[in-house]
Amino acid sequence: MFTKTTIIGLGLIGSSLARAARVHGLAHTIACGDVSTEVCAKVLELGICDSATHDLADAARDADLVILCVPVGAIGAVMETIAPALKPGCIVTDVGSVKQSVIAQVEKHLPAHAAFVPGHPIAGAEHSGPEAGRADLFNDHWCILTPAQQTPASETVAAFWRAIGANVEIMDAARHDLVLAITSHLPHLIAYSIVDTASTLEAHTREDVMKYSAGGFRSVTRTAASDPVMWRDIFLHNREAVLEILQRFGEDLTALQRAIRNGDGAALEEVFVRSRDIRRKNL
Amino acid sequence: MFTKTTIIGLGLIGSSLARAARVHGLAHTIACGDVSTEVCAKVLELGICDSATHDLADAARDADLVILCVPVGAIGAVMETIAPALKPGCIVTDVGSVKQSVIAQVEKHLPAHAAFVPGHPIAGAEHSGPEAGRADLFNDHWCILTPAQQTPASETVAAFWRAIGANVEIMDAARHDLVLAITSHLPHLIAYSIVDTASTLEAHTREDVMKYSAGGFRSVTRTAASDPVMWRDIFLHNREAVLEILQRFGEDLTALQRAIRNGDGAALEEVFVRSRDIRRKNL
Question: ipTM score of the complex?
Answer without folding.
Answer: 0.89
